[in-house]
Amino acid sequence: MAVRVQPRQLAFALPHAESLTRDNFLEGAANEAALSLIESWPDWPNRIMLLVGPEGSGKSHLAAIWAELAGARSTSAHALTAEAVPGALATGALVIEDLKPSAFDERATFHLLNLAREDDASVLITARVPPSAFEVELRDLKSRLRAVPAVLLLQPDDHLFRGLIVKFCADRQLSIDEAVVSYLTSRIERSYAAARHAVDLLDTEALRLGRPVTRALAAELLRDG
């Protein structure tokens, strides 16, 4: 007797749109100071400012809002070269994304900070940890980085954490109810990265299994994980 085997459904990682507009930024106590900084431009306490916060805390979203407001160009810290600095500052405003220890050109960064001051340009730098903690070989650059004021983004409180889960699901066009949100908020680490990971997992497995996103599915996945 032949046994019919059901084919396993494959899950494809389809691109999903994540809105980076001001209207879609979730406000909370954790990001209040950072949002205030963005919206107060050009009346900044310093022409060069730092946004420092954990992975997924909204630094890139805030940078995108500011870039739209200030007409700023954007570059990743690791891609910046000394030759590219004048062009990067051509509009008088620049976003430098994801400054990491030992992952950027020190001379290019030093040149940029100097030229930005000379040209009275505005620069917004994002990083996960304060650059004052970096091991930097150029002494003058180290002192310049320490002098840049930093605004911190904190881990989300209860209200913001729930909102993040809903937003991440909406970005992926996932339909969820309050039971799923409540279950996730009580079971996963309260961090931006954990919320995004949980939603990614739910989306992938719901597609693979051909099931809706329910509390039961969330319980199965978190239990197995």
Summarize the structure.
The protein is α/β, with parallel strands linked by helices and about 220 residues long. It has nine helices and five strands, in the order αβαβαβαβαβαααα. The protein has two domains: about 25-150, P-loop containing nucleotide triphosphate hydrolases (Rossmann fold); about 160-225, Helicase, Ruva Protein, domain 3 (Orthogonal Bundle), CATH 1.10.8.
Largest sheet: 5 strands, parallel
Percent of residues in beta strands = 5-15%
In the predicted model, the low-confidence regions spanning at least 5 consecutive residues are 1-15
- Report the structural category: alpha/beta
Shape: elongated
SSE succession: HEHEHEHEHEHHHH
Q: Would you write up a description of this structure?
A:
The protein is an alpha/beta fold and 225 residues long. The protein has two domains: 26-152, 3-Layer(aba) Sandwich (Rossmann fold); 158-224, Helicase, Ruva Protein, domain 3 (Orthogonal Bundle). Helix content is 44%, strand content 11%. It has nine helices and five strands; from the N terminus they run H-E-H-E-H-E-H-E-H-E-H-H-H-H. It has helices at 32-40, 59-70, 85-88, 106-119, 139-147, 158-171, 178-187, 192-209, 215-224, and strands at 48-52, 73-76, 93-99, 122-127, 150-152. Strands 2-3-4-1-5 form a five-stranded parallel β-sheet. Helix 7 (178-187) packs parallel to helix 9 (215-224) and helix 8 (192-209) packs across helix 9. The longest helix is centred in the last third of the chain and has 18 residues, at 192-209. The model is unreliable at 1-15 (pLDDT under 50).
